[in-house]
Design goal:
The complex is a heterodimer of chains A (316) and B (359). Chain A is mainly α and 316 residues long. Chain A has one domain (63-315): MetI-like fold (Orthogonal Bundle), CATH 1.10.3720.10. Chain A contains 14 helices and two strands. Chain A has helices spanning 14-46, 63-70, 72-107, 115-127, 130-141, 147-154, 171-183, 185-196, 200-208, 213-224, 226-241, 245-251, 264-273, 282-310; strands at residues 49-51, 57-59. Chain A has a two-stranded antiparallel sheet. The longest helix of chain A is centred in the first third of the chain and has 36 residues, at 72-107. Chain A starts with 13 loop residues before the first helix and ends in a 6-residue tail after the last helix. Chain B has 359 residues and is of the alpha+beta class. Chain B folds into two domains: 4-232, P-loop containing nucleotide triphosphate hydrolases (Rossmann fold), CATH 3.40.50.300; 237-356, Nucleic acid-binding proteins (OB fold (Dihydrolipoamide Acetyltransferase, E2P), Beta Barrel), CATH 2.40.50.140. In chain B, 23% of the residues lie in helices and 33% in strands. Chain B has eight helices and 20 strands. In chain B, strands 6-7-8-3-9-10 form a six-stranded mixed β-sheet, sandwiched between helices. A five-stranded antiparallel β-sheet of chain B has the order 13-12-11-14-20. The longest helix of chain B is centred in the middle third of the chain and has 18 residues, at 166-183. Chain B starts with a strand and ends in a 12-residue tail after the last strand. The chains are: A mainly alpha (316), B alpha+beta (359). Chains A and B meet through helix 9 and helix 10 of A and strand 6 and helix 2 of B. Bound molecules: adenosine-5'-triphosphate and magnesium ion (MG). The site of adenosine-5'-triphosphate has 12 residues of chain B, from strand 2 and helix 1.
């Protein structure tokens, strides 16, 4: 406060000013501490202990991390999950976001009819439960009674049918694409909103300058929504490295076949809570959770300090 | 030859007719200003000429060529928008060169045209800046520069000065007038501002409700408005209107015992309800003169050299008279007003003028 050392806000005594401050800050501080900061610190703390055979824990320093990254009993699964998670992310970046941008561009076409209907329909899967999505797609893709097989056969392409979810080579890509299908509404809406903020006169100016609608989008509007695209990318990154539910719903905790769709979330789940013959290990689970936290932190920091600083923001 | 000819132009958004049977010719090299109240269709007309709005019916030709179905870029027009609509991610040079690049103009020619425009508009030292690093007036000049480099047959301006502050607006107005002389360009210009319209225009088009109310030279509209709308719209403060009835040949009764003797146009018959119009600048405080009205001063607005007196007449109407100097009258004081007989307009019941004013 600029009002001198012993006077608080508007002539309040210092003590009652601090009380007032505390009153307004306390709810946020308490909620964040209990639900965010404490669990985070507890996780990191617990990753520093080693689980003994008898179920007790002893302090182990950074030993768990060394084990996770180098000891083949752990590191093979870890690096596999990490690689799969990057594939998962790259498929979202390469498929979901470009399609989202294209859909947003189409939605913002002035001559488009039934705009609200399209927007709602495309956004619909995002609002559905992941369990329903997973179950539905499992039925669609099922080699036994799935409609996809019949559809392909009906158009004479039955030979192209494959048990996409059951092959090691295709399971991860298939699950990723289902996730893309489910969440494509989010980049679409975010970029559509950014496109709406661009004044119509700018598009008119480009039209007078002789640009086609496509060129106007590509050379005028797209450069102006790059901040929104950056935001979408970082959100995608965070969501993808926290992903768990769709894989669990479709492929179970084992993320088969043969761990080919295993990502960080499912690996963490098996490790922390245990699965079938594997016993739950809270400290190794915490180690994986901490690694996930560090990866996301790194990604977000790269975005904040490297990418976002180079992005120009425009006000109209 | 870059005449713009508009014939019977109609434009409707669904059932809403926004432009109704517009006929307008913009002569080669002339400066035509569209004025009218908000929502009367000025921008829509301008955008129709530009080709940004499809038209419902009618004909538009530019330089003798029918352009109804041509896209904006092929109409040989350039448009300056109210918000300037500069590309925020491009610097001044690229803003001006953008359209030329898409038209595959050779690099050397782009350079030459841009630097020519930059020279005319004194933007040479700003070519590397982004729009947000420019002041409002500089952005305005870039927008005009972007129009100039296209070498269009017709320039279209939509309220280009309305985002500038008062002083800059006057400056830029003068600049635009000079530019018009320099480029010998055909210009269609939309504005709200009377002064802009009066000072810039070779011809003013007054629009109301999607129709052209009157077209003419600025002073023609001022002295000979065709109807009450134009009379009230052109001139500031607005023309006074007093409802009256013709009770005898050459006599008007304005109610409450106010009778005026005035040679009336032959079109008026005894018993007609008419409206008498007279501008504040043609009404003075004076006890003598052929046409007199009496009333009480409500309020005096002194602006310095001149001022305006709001006077309520016995019939309850209020009129504004221009005063010069500082008449020593208090509020509520009775005054006599003298109306200049040569500047009185008589409008019929339908609002159109009953032939020329009595003079
Ligand atoms: N896309 C549209 N759909 C329906 N009506 C419209 C549309 N665009 C404009 N109008 C209507 O057309 C009329 C004319 O609009 P226009 O923008 O030409 O007015 P203007 O004279 O330029 O007004 P201003 O001085 O406020 O800029 C207005 O009544 C407006 O409501
Ligand atoms: Mg307008």
């Amino acid at each position: 406060m600029a009002t001198g050392s012993d006077a608080g806000l508007m002539g309040m005594s210092r003590a009652s000013y601090l009380r007032l401050l505390g009153f307004f800050l306390a709810p946020a501080v308490i909620i964040y501490s209990v639900f965010s900061i404490y669990p985070l610190l507890a996780t990191i703390f617990s990753s520093l202990y080693l689980r003994q055979i008898d179920g007790t824990y002893v302090f182990n320093g950074l030993g768990n991390f060394v084990t996770l990254l180098t000891d083949t009993t752990w590191s093979v699964s870890f690096w596999n999950a990490m690689k799969n998670n990057f594939v998962f992310f790259l498929i979202h970046m390469g498929v979901q976001n470009p399609i989202g941008i294209a859909l947003a561009a189409l939605l913002s076409l002035p001559q488009l009819k039934f705009r609200a209907a399209y927007r709602t329909l495309i956004f619909m899967p995002t609002m559905l439960s992941v369990v329903i999505i997973g179950f539905t797609w499992q039925l669609i893709l099922s080699p036994l009674w799935g409609i996809s097989k019949m559809l392909l056969q009906a158009v004479g392409m039955g030979a192209f049918f494959a048990p996409l979810l059951g092959q090691e080579s295709t399971a991860l890509i298939t699950v990723s694409l289902i996730s893309v299908w489910q969440f494509v509404g989010i980049p679409m809406i975010l970029i559509y909103t950014a496109l709406l903020a661009i004044p119509d006169e700018l598009a008119d100016a480009a039209t007078v300058d002789g640009l086609t609608q496509f060129q106007t989008f590509f050379f005028v509007k797209l450069p102006l929504v790059i901040p929104a695209i950056g935001l979408v990318s970082v959100l995608t990154f965070v969501n993808n490295f926290n992903a768990f539910d769709l894989i669990y719903a479709m492929k179970g905790a084992l993320a088969g076949p043969n761990f080919s769709s295993d990502i960080m979330g499912t690996l963490f789940y098996r490790t922390f809570f245990g699965n079938q013959l594997q016993l739950g290990d809270a400290s190794m689970g915490s180690t994986i959770a901490t690694m996930m936290f560090l990866i996301i932190l790194l990604g977000v920091m790269v975005y904040l300090f490297v990418i976002q600083r180079r992005i120009q923001r425009y006000s109209f | 030859m870059s005449e713009v000819k508009i014939e019977n132009l109609c434009k409707a958004y669904g059932p809403v007719e926004v432009l109704k049977n517009i006929d307008l010719t913009v002569e080669d090299g002339s400066f035509v200003v569209l004025v009218g109240p908000s929502g009367c269709g000025k921008s829509t007309l301008l955008r129709s000429i530009a080709g940004l709005e499809p038209i419902t019916a009618g004909n538009i030709s530019i330089g003798g060529r029918q352009v109804n179905d041509l896209p904006p870029a092929q109409r040989q027009i350039a448009m300056v928008f109210q918000s300037y609509a500069l590309y925020p991610h491009k610097n001044v040079y690229d803003n001006m060169a953008f359209g030329l690049k898409f038209a595959r103009t050779p690099k050397a020619e782009i350079d030459q045209r841009v630097s020519e425009a930059a020279r005319i508009l004194q933007l040479e030292h700003l070519l590397k800046r982004r729009p947000r690093e420019l002041s409002g007036g500089q952005r305005q000049r870039v927008a005009i520069g972007r129009a100039i480099v296209r070498k269009p047959q017709v320039f279209l301006f939509d309220e280009p000065l309305s985002n500038l502050d008062a002083a800059l607006r006057i400056n830029t107005r003068v600049e635009i007038a000079k530019l018009h002389k320099l480029l010998k360009a055909t210009i269609v210009y939309v504005t709200h501002d009377q002064v802009e319209a009066m000072t810039l225009a070779d011809k003013i088009v007054v629009m109301n409700n999607g129709r052209v109310e009157q077209t003419g030279k600025p002073l023609d509209l001022y002295y000979n408005p065709a109807n009450m709308f134009v009379a009230g719209f052109i001139g500031s403060p607005a023309m006074n209107f007093v409802a009256a009835k013709m009770t005898q040949k050459n006599q008007l009764d304005c109610g409450a015992g106010m009778k005026i003797n005035l040679p009336l146009p032959p079109a008026c018959k005894v018993g007609d309800k008419v409206t008498l119009g007279c501008r504040p600048e043609h009404i003075q405080f004076a006890a003598e003169g052929k046409i007199q009205l009496k009333g009480n001063v409500d309020i005096l607005e002194r602006l310095g050299e001149i001022g305006y007196a709001h006077v309520s007449l016995p019939n309850g109407q209020s009129i504004v008279a221009q005063i010069t100097g500082d008449p020593k009258v208090g509020n509520g004081a009775p005054v006599s007003l003298a109306l200049s007989p040569t500047h009185i307009h008589i409008f019929g019941e339908d609002g159109s003028v009953c032939s020329a004013a009595a003079r």
